[in-house]
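hey so u asked for the seq, here:
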Amino acid sequence: MKKSTGVFLLSLIFNTALFAQSAQTPVAINGALSVENGIIVNKSGSAPQLRGISFSWSIWGGRKYYNPAVVDWLANDFKVSIIRASMAVQPDHGYLQEPVQQTQLVVNVVDQAIKDGIYVLIDWHDHHSNLHIPQSKAFFTEMAKKYTGVPNVIYEIWNEPEGTISWDTVKNYAVQVVTEIRKYDPDNLIVVGSPRWDQDVDVAAANPITGFKNIAYSFHFYASDPYHQEKLRAKADLAIKKGLPLMITEWGVGESNGNGKFDKMLVKTWLQWMEDNRLSWANWNITDKDETTALLVPGAPDNGGWTDDQLTAAGVYIREKLRELNK
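ran it, structure tokens below
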């Protein structure tokens, strides 16, 4: 065999192996997401059921994990198919004060998610988005221009509207921001919040947003919270029955304050409910804060590579579930 022929064959084998590997990524398998008949579907028209992890607020202790190495570790070790970049807006050092720095943190995460072939939620992590409409428009305009047509990218335009904020207020805000995004990105999935910390999806289902395609709605719960049990699932069940496309963009194993009890039986019930309804989800959260829903113990490295003893009970559990369910 001539040397040039051998080099060519080795190159062909190598490139074929790389293609086979990339073809197995979640985005390669599912393609661009859309909404059809009240369900989030993949390129084949089936519900993909993505499962993954939410980064914490991009300030405080969670900020240090907003880097490509962590994204890569979550994709390859935790086997996530989706991550969520929860960009802080209102608190000190959030987007309102440091828009350039916060935007760069998000871009760092999103660009690596694209390289790893996983989906990524760009989350405007704000409880009072109706008070920050110009800033939200500016941010999502920048993101839509940068990522238009990139199938990995999902826009989440309002994290958890505060409990006293009405659906009319949420809807009015959403229509304005969606209109801005659609000027530059006509197709990518957009996730809209719902009242009472993303719990009143039944209220949204009674009067959904119209006039735009590929709009979904976020639903949040904390599996061990005594107020997040049968009655809350019933609200989501009603919304699903009415044809509202849902995505669980945040849920935790503990209680709604991020701490409290980790009840595995209650978590199992919620996990089975999501499986039964083929709902995509992102678990809260990548941080080393000393609390129940944190996945990392205090002082865990900021570049991934975590050992079992650097994961909390929640971290060990979620990693096992992701590796089991996403295989």
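Residues 3-22 form the longest helix (20 residues). The chain has a mean pLDDT of 94.
lmk if thats what u needed
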